[in-house]
Write a structure and sequence with these properties.
With 207 residues, the chain is mainly alpha-helical. It is 73% helix and 0% strand. Helix 1 runs parallel beside helix 3.
């Protein structure tokens, strides 16, 4: 019955996409992506709308749609380029979640848009202390994966980890270690602190 319902929703959504507003496009894409429903006709229709109308849409609609495409592993370069150009113009308006979703999407799809990453890096550097921990982790992972993480960003990241040491799970430390290694960051103070935290949490990391 659930498969029947999803097929009915897809059939209606495919027809409705051209007339949807930004919020409906983003919400519907997010819902299908969360359900891991990678329906090509639906997402192609969304890509067409986003490519040609993204200037009409709010930042959250853009970042959530990019996240949805990454979630179902559909790479549409023209759409992502249009989203990038729009988000660069409104970068100061992006909340932490929007920054995290956007850079995660571009990294997951392996799209190295240096202009976008530079713009969002500037916002991240200014506001990282106000990010939730998961947004900090996901954003830094994305910058490292795309080889856009410089020493200044990684040191700032390390300082945030130190300030939030009590909130870090063992998995956060392993992700952080991967980020530092991938970014080839050799800041002795930051790396020493990270190594100490990992050693202390070895029993936790084993399970």
């Amino acid at each position: 019955r659930s498969n029947w319902l999803i097929e009915e929703l897809l059939a209606e959504s495919r027809k409705a996409v051209p007339d949807m507003n930004g919020q409906n496009v983003a919400n519907t894409s997010w819902a299908f992506a969360t359900l891991r429903v990678a329906d090509l006709p639906f997402f192609e229709a969304v890509a067409e709308v986003m490519t040609h109308r993204c200037s009409e849409f709010a930042q959250q609609n853009l970042s959530n749609t990019a996240w949805a495409f990454a979630k179902v592993q559909l790479k549409r370069n023209e759409m992502m380029s249009a989203i990038s150009e729009r988000l660069q113009r409104i970068a100061p308006e992006l909340p932490a979640q929007g920054i995290a979703n956007t850079v995660w999407a571009f990294a997951t799809l392996n799209i190295r848009d240096t202009a976008l990453m530079s713009s969002l890096r500037a916002q991240m550097m200014q506001r990282m202390a106000r990010f939730q921990l998961q947004n900090v982790m996901n954003s830094t992972w994305a910058f490292a994966k795309l080889s856009c993480a410089d020493d200044e960003l990684m040191v700032h990241f390390g300082e945030e980890l130190a300030a939030r040491a009590g909130s870090l799970a063992g998995g956060d430390l392993t992700v952080a270690a991967w980020c530092f290694a991938t970014a080839d960051c050799h800041n002795e103070r930051v790396m020493s602190r990270l190594a100490s935290d990992i050693i202390e949490r070895i029993p936790e990391l084993m399970y």
